[in-house]
Amino acid sequence: MSKFSWRWLSRRKSRSPDVSALSCERFEDGDRRQLLQALSAIAAGGALAAMPRSSDAKDSSDLPPPKRALTGRDEAGKSVFKSFDVTSKVVEIDANPGLTFYELYMTEGVPGLTGLEPDPMLKGTRAFPGPGGTMFRLISHPPKRPEGWKPPPGVTFESGLKEMSDKVPGMGDHFERDAPGMHTSDTIDYGVVVRGEMTLELDDGQKVHLRQGDCVVQNGTRHRWRNPLPEPCLMAFISIGGKRG
Question: What is the pTM of this model?
Fold first, then answer.
């Protein structure tokens, strides 16, 4: 029996001799289920303790930018890593400090899958793909603004949308002028909360609160995102271009 198993049994014995004796018989018979359960509980407790709380979570500027592993093929047809680094297209929106687009990959039509395709992000990006196209991106949403927060000097709602469209062509055009934040696109969007939390709002004020690991499927619906926490939220999106019925 390992030293750890003996110590664990000793502690159990001090609490309940009958239970520890039973556990000893099980270990002698080769049944280690109780020990595995205890180890799982210990590991889970440690993981929960290590998770950052809202009060001490790091700011986005303290976190390293996410890396992208891009694969392809060499001249012999073998699979290779073309790169493993931050994507070549990172877009920061100055009008809304903390809003950052990590543009990872996009396709139009049916991909050829030769493995020799160049990185499409070297040519730039766009708001959303056309019918049958795809767009893969991460978006870091800034924390909830404190009361009294004001945008940088000279920034207006219109100038913010213009900057967004200049840097992510056409993106600002999808946002409504009379309902800030509300937007619609001709895509199906698969979204995952990678880090943080986010509130998704639809028509008539319908809302759902998404936590880390939660997913959403947007079927071309009108919506708005709001970060409810004083820490950034990182979300992953895969958009697939469609057509309005």
Answer: 0.75
